Amino acid sequence: TLSIHRLVAAGHRRFDKEPGTWFGPSEVCFMLKDCLEKTHSFASVICSDGQLYRDEITRACTEFIPSKELARRRVGSRDQDSSKSSVHPVDDEKNSTQTTEKRWRPLILFVPLRLGVQTFNEDYVPALLECLQMPQTLGILGGKPMSSLFFVGHQGTKLLFLWIHTQSKLHRVQTEF
Predict the structure, then answer these.
(1) What is the CA radius of gyration of the chain?
(2) pTM for the full model?
(3) How far apart are CA 107 and CA 67, in angstroms?
């Protein structure tokens, strides 16, 4: 779902940018959202204006599944424990003879922010460290133009990050390890 090839294709469709072109953190949020929309596993919302609305979350996380589609999915996933899924029967307003079921999907929330005008504002450090302690946090993508970092955690007050713009040497398992 989130392969580099699918992300680049989403960037090309949405922004008409070629592979190898710089994608800023906000653009990456939209590319990830586009890829996630193709799956029924996760909902995604981009909180781009600094406001988060409960009805927007509810709309994104609620999936209405026609009974025929639900039956097809269950046949493909008989090994999974169905008691973990929160599926509830709902009457379909368009066709009262067909039953639709409602399922709540987990949410990936993207919050693109600028944490300083020219340079990083150190006042944000305590809040970022607190966010990175939450088990639900997937990480923080940010930096400056043409040089973004992916923050994955912290040790004390030092942020741990991946610099996604460098390539590592290929290690051959048979000879180097």
Answers:
(1) 20
(2) 0.67
(3) 23
Residues 101-147 pLDDT 10s: 788 899 999 988 878 777 878 888 888 899 999 999 998 887 777 77
Give the percent of the chain with pLDDT over 70: 72
Contact 31, 14 (CB under 8 A): yes
Nearest to 28 by CA among 39, 38, 41, 17: 17
* Count of residues making up the chain: 177
Share in percent of the chain as helix, strand, coil (round to 5) = 35, 25, 40
**What are the b/e assignments for 9-28, b being 16+ CB within 10 Å?**
ebbeeeeeeeeeeebbbebb
H/E stretch holding 9: helix 4-15
3-class DSSP assignment, residue 78:
coil
